[in-house]
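Q: I have 122 residues here and want to know how they pack in 3D. Can you give me a structure?
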Amino acid sequence: MRLLSLFLIFISQWIFSASDQGNITVNGETVEVSVERIYSPAADYPRSALRRGTEGFVVIEFDVSPEGEVVDPYVVETDQPGYFERAVMRTIRRWAYEPYVYNGVPVTVNDVTARFTFKLTE
């Protein structure tokens, strides 16, 4: 049953939208843009949370570099402090994005957010 739960978590993360919102600054003005994820493995369900049957979520914010790498991720919100943050931080650093190009030049996209949901199914 636990294997099925983990499989469903993986599938739900895989189906998750491959586009995230962020901001760029153009002529001193903030403009909202979408960045396309090209690699986004799901976070592993922490064993301690599995043993306790704990579910929860983590919202993370970060920048996307001109090369498409995740830069300076940090936790914005979580409903179960101490359970899922490490797994999310390990995972988010592996994500990759299509570089965002503005006027022919790759630029940094700021304040991109992603939500990770950890849910057990019975």
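Q: Anything worth noting?
A: The chain has one domain: 2-118. Strands lie at 19-26, 29-39, 56-64, 70-78, 96-97, 100-102, 105-107, 109-118.
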